[in-house]
Amino acid sequence: GQSLEQPSEVTAVEGAIVQINCTYQTSGFYGLSWYQQHDGGAPTFLSYNALDGLEETGRFSSFLSRSDSYGYLLLQELQMKDSASYFCAVYNQAGTALIFGKGTTLSVSS
Amino acid sequence: GAGVSQSPSNKVTEKGKDVELRCDPISGHTALYWYRQSLGQGLEFLIYFQGNSAPDKSGLPSDRFSAERTGGSVSTLTIQRTQQEDSAVYLCASSLEAQARSNQPQHFGDGTRLSIL
C-alpha cells in the first residue's frame, strides 16, 4: 500500500524560507504531488515531480529523490497568505487516485 | 462555471437519514474523484470515475456509501442510514484524465460539510 509522512506543523516569519519534507512508501510510484489548502477551502494543485530533481515555479519549488523515497516543498519569501495546509500525495498502485499525507499546517507570522 | 461545483455547501441531518451530495465537474473532464476529509486530517480517497464507470471504488468505507455518474458529467454520492462518524467534508475533484501518467492536476470543489446529529 501507500503511506506518506510529513510534519504536522511548521512556523515561520514573513520573508523567510521554509521546507516541508515528505517521505513516502508506495508499491508503485508515478510521481509526487503537492497541494495547498487554505482553511475551509478547496485544495489547489502546486506541483508534480515524476523525475528526480528540483522544479521551480515562482516562489515555490519542489524536489524529488526517488532513490530515497523523499521529496520536499520549498517556499521562499514567505507571505502571510502562504499560511495554509500543504499536502504531499502519491498515486495508488493502479494510478487512478491520489493518496494524501495528513498535511502540514504552515503558520506565517509578521 | 469554470470550476468544480459542489452542492449543498453544508448539510446537517439526523442520524439514520439518507443524504445525497452533488458534484458538477469541469466541462470536458473525464476523470472524477470523491474524497473525504475529517477535521485536521488528510484527504481520504473514496471512489474514482472514468466517464460513467467507476473502475476504483476501493475507498468506499461501507455498503452504505454509493456513487454514480451520469452523462460523463454530474456525480452524486449517496450515504444511506447516516452515522455520526460520517461527519466530514466531502470533496469532489476532476481532471482531464487520470493524472498518473499524464500529469493532469486534480481540480477540487469547495466541498460539502456534512454534520450528522
Overview of the structural elements:
The complex is a heterodimer of chains A (110) and B (117). Chain A is an all-beta fold. Chain A is 0% helix and 56% strand. Chain A has strands spanning 3-5, 9-13, 18-25, 32-37, 44-49, 53-57, 60-65, 70-75, 84-91, 98-100, 104-109. In chain A, strands 2, 4, 5, 9, 10 and 11 form a 6-stranded mixed β-sheet that branches. Chain A has a 5-stranded antiparallel β-sheet with strand order 1-3-8-7-6, with no helix packed on it. In chain A, a hairpin with a 2-residue loop joins strand 6 and strand 7 (60-65). Chain A is globular, with a radius of gyration of 13 Å. In chain B, strands 2, 4, 5, 6, 9, 10 and 11 form a 7-stranded mixed β-sheet that branches. Chain B has a 4-stranded antiparallel β-sheet with strand order 1-3-8-7, with no helix packed on it. Chain B has 117 residues and is mainly β. Chain B has no helices and 11 strands. In chain B, a hairpin with a 2-residue loop joins strand 5 and strand 6 (53-56). Chain B has strands spanning 5-7, 10-13, 19-24, 31-37, 43-50, 53-56, 65-69, 75-79, 88-95, 107-108, 112-116. The N and C termini of chain B lie far apart (33 Å). The A-B interface holds A 30-31, 33, 41-45, 48, 50, 87, 89, 91-92, 94-103 and B 3-4, 33, 35, 41-45, 48, 50, 55-56, 59, 91, 93, 98-101, 103, 105-111.
